[in-house]
Write a structure and sequence with these properties.
Elements: E1 3-8, H1 9-19, E2 24-27, H2 34-45, E3 52-55, H3 59-71, E4 76-80, H4 82-87, H5 89-97, E5 103-108, H6 122-126, E6 133-136, H7 140-154, E7 163-168, E8 176-181, H8 184-190, H9 216-248, E9 256-259, E10 266-270, H10 275-287, E11 292-297, E12 299-301, H11 305-312, E13 317-322, H12 333-341, E14 349-354, H13 364-377, E15 382-390, E16 393-396
Parallel strand pairs: 2-3, 2-4, 4-5, 5-7, 6-7, 10-11, 10-13, 13-14, 14-15
Antiparallel strand pairs: 1-8, 6-12, 9-11, 15-16
Helix pairs in contact: 1-2, 1-7, 3-5, 7-9, 10-13
Length: about 400
């Protein structure tokens, strides 16, 4: 196996991307993502990575460059955050609807305004319906492993969609921990070259017009096929996790991870880096005789409705903890989607919790407060508003 290295989340993302042998990397820095592309630039400059590095003037250009290269048959990589993701939205949307496979890291960050550069998940959540597969990590090891899995998933002939590997800015991107880094030989044995699954869309020997003006009936066919590919990805994600576990000895549970859920009455649902605090709060609650559990939503797109409904079957109460807001629903976006997924799947006591915006911490004490509230309402099925995890106050709307 590989060696244990102490890496930030950003360096872990860069090193993992390099192991996947990208043909082209397009680089534009933005906090807190900057050191991803900076480290890849070092690897290319030092001769450790044989890839074309294109330094561009904006994120819009970065996505446009990888888009052209992907259409030409290249394996590509880039990374971004927040306002950079917003600036690249036009080609970002086009990347998925052209069904071009690639992997892009997002070191998630709160969106402006009020002005902030600190952690949050609003940037990635705001583009959840742009047709990309979205995966959220809660450890630097998971960042490494999911970038490698991301290429296998993206390039799978039954999927053919770009993949975002998302992780919390600063909390993951800049903090260090030990990572079991696979060797190049191990990754080569696991991940086939892109050409094994895809021929180039643009080929001088077979000229075509890429993305000409499209009539409505044909466009509807494209969208239907895109949605079908998303649904096929649900099984490919599980299959890829099993293959990775066989090759590297690490399994993440596929679409979701369940923690102490077998006999749980109360369940926290988390996304990304808050998961560790949630697990600690579950353990402490168990010591107090409260049967709590946790589900980590790993893939937000495609949304694993059936897996979540199955995992919550027989439970009495749940709370979804969001690190972003749904402006139209006065609660968290993940809560809105889970509530929809559970329609006609039983009666629960439930509420939405929102915390960690703009870099604010979501602590073990915050998660324990959520569990205690679930314990108070578990015998009274219904909806109980939104709990704001704010310092020195408990606000409900």
């Amino acid at each position: 196996m590989g060696s244990i290295r102490v890496l930030t989340g950003n360096y872990a993302a860069a090193e993992a991307a390099a192991l996947c042998r990208p043909d082209l990397i397009s680089a534009y820095p933005i906090t807190p993502q900057s050191s991803v592309v900076e480290h890849l630039s070092e690897l290319v400059h030092n001769g450790e990575l044989d890839a074309e590095l294109v330094q561009v003037e904006s994120e819009h250009s970065a996505m446009s460059v990888v888009q052209g290269a992907a259409a030409g048959g290249a394996r590509t990589f880039t990374a971004t955050s927040a306002q950079g993701l917003a600036l690249m939205y036009e080609p970002y949307f086009r990347m998925s609807t052209l069904r071009l496979p690639m992997v892009m890291a997002i070191a998630t960050r709160e969106m402006t305004s009020p002005e902030t550069i600190w952690s949050g998940q609003q940037d990635a959540i705001s583009v959840r319906d742009a047709g990309w597969i979205q995966m959220f990590c809660d450890s630097n090891q998971e960042i490494v492993d999911m970038i490698i899995q991301g290429y296998m998933l993206s390039e799978h002939p039954q999927v053919c969609l770009p993949v975002n590997i998302c992780y919390d800015g600063f909390y993951s991107s800049h903090l260090t921990c030990g990572v079991d880094m696979p060797t190049q030989e191990e990754v080569d044995a696991f991940l086939p070259p892109r050409s094994a699954n895809h021929s180039a869309l643009l080929d001088p020997r077979s000229p075509l017009a890429l993305d000409p003006m499209t009539p409505g009936e044909l466009l509807m066919n494209y969208r239907r096929n895109h949605l079908a590919a998303m649904q096929r990805a649900l099984e490919v994600i599980e299959e890829t996790d099993r293959k990775f576990a066989a090759a590297f000895g690490r399994s993440y549970g596929g679409l979701i991870e369940e923690y102490r859920c077998d006999d749980a009455e109360l369940v926290l649902i988390t996304l990304g880096g808050m998961t560790g605090a949630g697990k600690d709060a579950v353990d402490e609650s168990r010591e107090r005789g409260i049967r709590a559990g946790l589900i980590k939503l790993r893939f937000y797109r495609p949304f694993p409705a059936a897996r979540l409904a199955s995992a919550l079957r027989g439970k009495r109460a749940f709370c979804v903890v969001d690190r972003s807001v749904c402006f139209g629903w006065n609660c968290g976006p993940m809560y809105v989607e889970l509530r929809s997924a559970l329609e006609n799947c039983g009666s629960y006591a439930r509420f939405s919790a929102i915390g960690g915006l703009g870099g604010a911490d979501i602590s073990v004490a915050d998660m324990a407060r959520v569990i205690d509230r679930l314990n108070d309402i578990k015998d009274r099925p219904g909806e109980y508003g939104t709990l704001w995890l704010m310092k020195d106050q408990e606000a409900e709307v």
